[in-house]
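[step 3/7] fold_predict: job queued, chain A
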Amino acid sequence: RLRASVAPEAVLLVVEDNGVGIPEKDIPRIFERFYRVDKSRSREMGGTGLGLAIVKHVAQLHGGAVSVQSRVGYGSTFTLRLPPGSDRKTA
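[step 4/7] structure written:
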């Protein structure tokens, strides 16, 4: 599920799933480059472990942040928080 909201202080994009969840011990590392929670499963499904690191980097470049809440067996919720843009046009 994807939700978006705009407030004076931030734009929020929230992505929720009902997947396997992320073990608590892995949460501090999931935004590191090349980190994979389950190495064997990641090979089967593809991926390099770069996606979340890229999201974090781009968010920070725009003055924002990304966070996660997860519970094993129930899924995860990722929140991308960005500062609101200006109304001025740039070329």
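[step 5/7] annotate
The chain is about 20% helix and 30% strand.
The chain has one domain: 2-82.
exit 0
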